[in-house]
Amino acid sequence: MATRHTWLMLAALAVSAWSSTAIAQSNIHLYILDTHTGAVTQATPPMDFEPYNASFCNDGKELVHDIVPGNLLAVTDLKAGVVTNLGIEGENAHWSPNGKYIAYHYWVTTPHQLRVIPAAGGAPVFTRDWAYDPSWTNNSKRIAFMDGLGYIGTVGLDGTETNLGYMAWGCNPAYSPDGKLIVYEGDGCWWGYPAQLMAIPVNENGVALGDPYPITSGAFYASYASFSNDGKTIVFSGNAGSDPTEWGLYTVSVYGGDPVVLFDRPGKGEWDPAYSNNGRYVVFSGPE
What we know:
The chain is mostly beta strands and 288 residues long. The chain has one domain: Neuraminidase. Helices cover 3% and strands 48% of the residues. A hairpin with a 6-residue loop joins strand 10 and strand 11. The longest helix has 9 residues.
């Protein structure tokens, strides 16, 4: 994607783009962590919205994310340092691996909906009622989600669906790069209890091939898991429980074990991490 998408340019005409000259009211920003060097850079310019839940596009040049208040979708051009309000009501957007689609939670109607919008432009497409926290499989044909009843499921762009609710209950599922695992937060996430990361093996159609198994200890708060490009490492926002504000970035092996601190600024908080497709960068939200 050498140039910005057509739908971004149209959105810029319909709404507006913020540049570094925007009025600074929010102290929440998106940051990029270079896992090779440890360097952290601020990705979003000063603006009067707070960005959360960012997802890289396939070439790593742009981010799609929420902005609040308003619960709208926006895109940040990392090279230009410009944030464009898309004027689309939604949250928890996730860019497909092939770069062609963006899935998101549409919260305006009842029931809430999982929707998909073509990245090249076009109208949003309804995919499923009462579906949250979308994550694409490796072939960009299927989406993992949390159902409104609390179970993990998958739905294909062709409308086929699998229900893992007889064994997998929790929040924020994340597909592995090879499409063979779904990692999710255990059901403690519904109540604010420590929620260990769980994994369940699936086939290409999202059908379970075995029982879920734990990745992290149940004594550890774990949220918003994201896989590295080789599928061996999971990054997540974690809290050991000693301080409710002390959320940092942790990594853990896909085979389980003790989490390792990746990045933490004591007393500030780092949330909603996501790997870039090349596995080098991690985007996250946090205060200045």
